Give the backbone structure.
Amino acid sequence: MDLETKTLYVVIWTSPDGSVNRAIYQLQAIDITNGHSRHDPLTIEATADAQAAPGAAPARFVPSRQKQRASLLLTKTQERPGSPPRKTLFIGFGMTHEEHDPTHGWVIAYDVDEFRWTAAWCTTPHATGCGIWQAGQGPSADEAGEVYVMTGNYGNENSVPAPGDLPESFVKLHYTPPADHVSQGKLEPVAWFTPFRDVDRSDLSGQGQDNFKDYDLGSAGPVPIPGMSLVLGAGKDGVLYVLDKDTAKFGKGSDYRVLKQPPLFFTYFPGFGIDAAQVGNLDRLYTGKTHHLHGTPAFWRSPTHGPMLFVWGENECLRAWTLRETGELKFLAKSAEIASAGLGGKGGMPGGFTVVTSDGGTPNTGIVWTLAPQSGDANTHVVRGILRAYDASALDPIPNADGTPRLKLLWHSDHIPDNAFNHSKFCPPVVADGKVFVPTYDGRVDVYGLHLTARGQRRATNARRMPR
């Protein structure tokens, strides 16, 4: 949403006759003051001509088999001092079938002032797969307008990626706007880190517990840290990688020496002495359950603890970390509550989704709002969800049962009598205008706010329910 122009940009998947084979993607620009379209819809198309090998057919965008899950990214950059800023919309795509399917991941750029296509980048110009998923998070941008994505698995999990293909990678993309009103721009990778590129996957999954040939780094999105030269992220294995935003220091390959700190078990603790840099240590289910990350970490500058990260993986607790300028993270505390608590087997999806709010830098005003399934698997069943609020700074005086510091739970939605909703995975809560907006799997958005009781006390309430 562009608040300057009061425009909502929307990608839709539609078909003239209702069939999947004739489905197309369109980009819409809607005036939020009256609901009218500002432009005729643009049909989304792309081919990777500049990325094709000599004599080979270029990869092409297949609308009937692409899946657009990631949010949209709107940037505003200035090409040179004194020039007017240019607004660009970036759209990430996965595909309906990841393995053994002739489709690719894409990032496609549009100049929204002129409302036209300007550039595209294909994640696998020489093979297939490698979608932009990120559990619903869109591409990210830093202060300079550079774009970051984390990609999914290759079309053939046992293959060594061809040069130019970037599966399961952190990718830094540089966008060059068009020189005039008719020419194209450029969107090209300038740095990347592929932690599992050289791994022989043919002998993995020996325990039969999970598909460890599919590390799926792109199950969550990257976080460029504002005010720091850091970009970080974690994927299905729950391991965090911290890189330098600087292109030269970011690197181009699988060299772990470019990392700002060694890989870190981020969503869970497997035990002391287990090295996350050794890929063999990821080929197992610690505690017998998955600890995948599907919700991108939330960053916040705490007046008490300094820069912080909050993360909630599958079958685990909300975890709080402190972050230093060097890229070093330190565990601070975790919640007593567990996502999908009590499930047997490998547990349930998708963990928790977080957002942090505060009254600027005013101490003791930070709140971590979270959405998570209470006890079920939201990937395969419709299960009950819960909204929780934690203190982002002050810890609970009572530690957890394992002796770790405990995050203080302030409130949860079950405090409201007869209040219940079903969990909608990949959807974080939205906090605006003193209210918390909760997407549900019940065909509605629930809105929570504060109201005064008869004695003048403030109490949370489910203010109203908005039908979808």
User: Anything to note?
Assistant: The first strand starts at residue 7 and ends at 14. Helices lie at 247-250.
